[in-house]
Amino acid sequence: MLTEGDPAPSVTAPMATPEAARDAERGNYTSDDVAEFDLETVLEDGPVVLAFYPGVYSRTCTRELCELRDWRAELAELDANVYGVSADTPWSLLAFIDEYDLSYPLVSGFNTDVIAEFGVQREDGPLRGIANRAVFVVDPDGTVTYTWSADQPLTFPDTDELATEIRAAGDP
């Protein structure tokens, strides 16, 4: 797993956005509904929060993504882009965004190296290839400034601490 001070990898991956989920009819998604996530490009707008999670529609991940949705709404003044990242396909991510009214994009690690590049990919067992639960803050220069990983299910990062780290990452 990457640590604080490490350069973030230059990654691109398919992305499901709230706009596409809202505009498309659920169950009828096409490749036209899928955007591209490019970390270097989104860093041009300020710090980035990447919240890695195993997969949509699981009990713990659904709770985590909804808590992140609610937390993000409370801290709208933070100058950071928030992205969820999992091994799910972009079409299942679009359906999840639609069903749970998420206001932030979800990045698909399906058939990409984004999860492995951040060092959070499960290497063995029946869920090999999915992401372990982890959060990274990346500053606009592409440096990882904060990391958190879960040791137990239903464990989430301290949002006050995360907010402090996001603010620090945005300060020149």
Protein topology:
Blueprint: E1 12-16, H1 18-23, E2 35-38, H2 39-43, E3 48-52, H3 59-74, E4 81-86, H4 90-100, E5 106-108, H5 114-117, E6 134-138, E7 144-149, H6 159-170
Parallel strand pairs: 3-4, 4-5
Antiparallel strand pairs: 1-2, 1-5, 3-6, 6-7
Gist of the model:
The protein is α/β, with parallel strands linked by helices and 172 residues long. The protein has a single domain (12-170), classed as Glutaredoxin.
Structure description:
- The protein has 172 residues and is of the alpha/beta class.
- The protein has 6 helices and 7 strands; from the N terminus they run E-H-E-H-E-H-E-H-E-H-E-E-H.
Essential attributes:
172 residues, alpha/beta, Glutaredoxin, seven-stranded mixed β-sheet, 6 helices, 7 strands, 20% strand
Query: Strand pairing plus helix content: what structural class?
Result: alpha/beta
In order across it, which strands form the biggest sheet? 2-1-5-4-3-6-7
State the domain count: 1
Report the biggest beta sheet as strand number plus sense, adding barrel if it closes: 7 strands, mixed
CATH class: Alpha Beta
Outline: globular
How large is the share of residues in beta strands?
Answer: 15-25%
InterPro entries: AhpC/TSA (IPR000866), Thioredoxin-like_sf (IPR036249), Thioredoxin_domain (IPR013766), Tpx_Peroxidase_subfamily (IPR050455)
Region (Disordered): 1-27
GO molecular function: antioxidant activity; oxidoreductase activity
Keywords: Redox-active center
